[in-house]
Amino acid sequence: MFHLIADKIERDPAWLQTGLDNIARWIANGSTQQDKLREWERMILAARESGEGMEALLKALREDTERAEFFRNFAPFAGVLDRREHEIVDEICAFAH
C-alpha cells in the first residue's frame, strides 16, 4: 500500500497536502502520537522544499525495515488512495496470503 502512496505522491506532489491536513486534524483532535506526526510533518515539509527531502519521504514510504514499518503505522496519508486503489491492495494482499 505504501509503495502505491509513494508512487502517487511522486507523480503528483500536491498529495503531500493531504498528509499535512490529516496531521493538523489529528493533532487538533488530541492524537496521542503527536511526536510521530510532527516527524511526518517535518518530512513532508522537507519534501515540498527540495528533491532531497522528497527522496527521504519516498524512501520512508518504500523501504522494508522494521523502523520504516513502525513509522508507517502512523502515516498521515489516509485519503491519498481511492477506492479502486484500495481494492488493488486488498487483492494483492489476499493473493499473497
Secondary-structure blueprint:
Blueprint: H1 2-11, H2 16-28, H3 34-49, H4 51-62, H5 66-72, H6 83-96
Helix pairs in contact: 1-4, 2-3, 3-4
State the gist of this model.
With 97 residues, this protein is an all-alpha fold. The chain is 74% helix and 0% strand.
Can you describe what's shown?
This protein is mainly α and 97 residues long. The chain has one domain. The protein has helices at residues 2-11, 16-28, 34-49, 51-62, 66-72, 83-96. Helix 3 crosses helix 4. It is globular and about 35 Å long. The mean pLDDT is 89.
What structural class do you assign from the helix and strand content?
A: mainly alpha
The number of domains: 1
Strand content: under 5%
Shape: globular
Task: Please report the number of helical segments.
Answer: 6
Mean pLDDT: 89
Radius of gyration: 13 Å
List keywords for this structure.
6 helices; globular; single chain
